[in-house]
Amino acid sequence: DADVTQTPRNRITKTGKRIMLECSQTKGHDRMYWYRQDPGLGLRLIYYSFDVKDINKGEISDGYSVSRQAQAKFSLSLESAIPNQTALYFCATSAGLAGEQYFGPGTRLTVT
Amino acid sequence: GQSLEQPSEVTAVEGAIVQINCTYQTSGFYGLSWYQQHDGGAPTFLSYNALDGLEETGRFSSFLSRSDSYGYLLLQELQMKDSASYFCAVRSYGQNFVFGPGTRLSVLP
Q1: Are A21 and A109 within 8 A, CB to CB?
Q2: Closest residue, chain A, to B93 (C-alpha)
Q3: How is A36-54 classified by DSSP, letter by letter?
Q4: Which of A42, A58, A105 sits opposite B102 (nearest CB)?
Q5: For the segment B25-74, what is each residue's pLDDT rounded down to a tens digit?
Q6: Cα dist from A40 to A13, A26, A58, A82, B103, whole Å
Q7: Between chains, do A43 and B87 touch, taking CB under 8 Å as contact?
Q8: Contacts of A98 in chain B (CB under 8 A)
Q9: Are A66 and A75 in contact (CB under 8 A)?
Q10: With contact defined as beta carbons under 8 Å apart, do A72 and A89 qualify?
Q11: pLDDT surpasses 70 at B95
């Protein structure tokens, strides 16, 4: 079984809709992250959390919100989706001060 | 601000050696990581350098010079399966990660 899972894997939604992307991990890591990837722009950090009570904005948090429901679960919400939020979204985890992150398989989101 | 620079594309032939460079400007620095991403896949971790010098892991090696804000990933004995995008990432103040734009490596037969 995968250590970091994301649901859904693909999603098509309309402008103005609220959607939630979910991430679960079995690695026992405290730190979890949400990134979006656009062609040619690498990975950009949306939000990150170092434990259940710690939520921090990343580089591009506008238009997004998150919820850390448990150590193992970190959800990303788009309150009112817009077409330029069409992208590939990745959840990742890391342990403490390690330089290694473990990524989920990604969610391909299309906003029409 | 924080920024990382990498070449956008590199091409090499099977069996060759290729070096992918990364320069960075960040507000605080703890270490430099490298990730590989195949088309349609998730990034996977390759290496992490917190101290100056060369780290070797099989066919892949990574180098860091903190004084020059520079690092590189060295891939030896290239194989077709190494065709992928490679990202450098800095772990900076705030303990989060900033990624470079990625280098697309094409390995030719």
Answers
A1: yes
A2: A97
A3: EE-TTS-EEEEEEEEETTE
A4: A42
A5: 988 888 999 999 999 899 999 999 999 999 998 999 999 999 999 999 99
A6: 24, 31, 19, 20, 9
A7: yes
A8: 48
A9: yes
A10: no
A11: no
